[in-house]
Amino acid sequence: MNDVLKGLIRTHFEELKQEYPNFRLTFREKDAVVTGLLEFYIASEKEQIAHEYHVSMYIPIDYPNNLPSVTEFSGKVPTNFHVNPTGQLCLGVASDLWFYLEGKLTLSRFTKRCVIPFFLSLQQKQQTGKVNQGERPHGSRGIQEFFKDYFSCDDTEKLLRILCAIYYGLLDSVASCPCGNNKTYEDCCKQKVDLLLEFCPQNVIRKDILIFFHFHYKEKEQSLLKNFFSSKMKNDPHENFQYHSLSSFFR
Ligand SMILES: [Zn+2]
Ligand SMILES: [Zn+2]
Description:
Blueprint: H1 3-19, E1 24-27, E2 32-43, E3 48-59, E4 69-72, H2 94-100, H3 107-128, H4 140-150, H5 156-167, H6 190-199, H7 202-217, H8 222-235, H9 237-245
Antiparallel strand pairs: 1-2, 2-3, 3-4
Helix pairs in contact: 4-7, 5-7, 5-8
This protein binds zinc ion (ZN) (2 copies).
């Protein structure tokens, strides 16, 4: 980790420590780890109820363009809730999380907008059997749902077209919209795409789009996709390979 990044992490950590004084910061060769007791209160009608979770947040080398991963180690999160095979908590679909952060990642915002809501959802699920604000499916199906909701579009072909245009940077305001709505891009999907690109770092969008492609590549749209991407894939065999190397995201 270089000194600039270490400095940024220290600054963000000091801000976090103001609110959560239990946390400790450790720098390691390839990442930094914030560990401690996450304590927060939920007001009910009669009382304030304290909640405590022992967590570690692993801050990656591409912070703040990539989210920390989080583990909880007092055994309070059942593995049939959103926990990845690696033991890391599945806090949500990455694009959703960047929208909660409004595109700005600090450790304090991340804790308040991504980590605590995860534990609140767990509480609700354990108490009532469901999560009030809804719950995305785990893994790649959650990413499918995110894009469908975000573009208010159930038409897979339209979605593939617009996501492909984002992925390859083929967006032109005066041209017709890649989704195929017979409007200019400016009058159709531009606003939504701009907001997506404003809030989510490129690497995040590209990864989620690849997962979306991969999901459909396997399914009945296989031939449609092959035709749609064939010219680009021929030019870019590396991208073609990425579809297959992403299989670890699927279950
Ligand atoms: Zn999940
Ligand atoms: Zn459109």
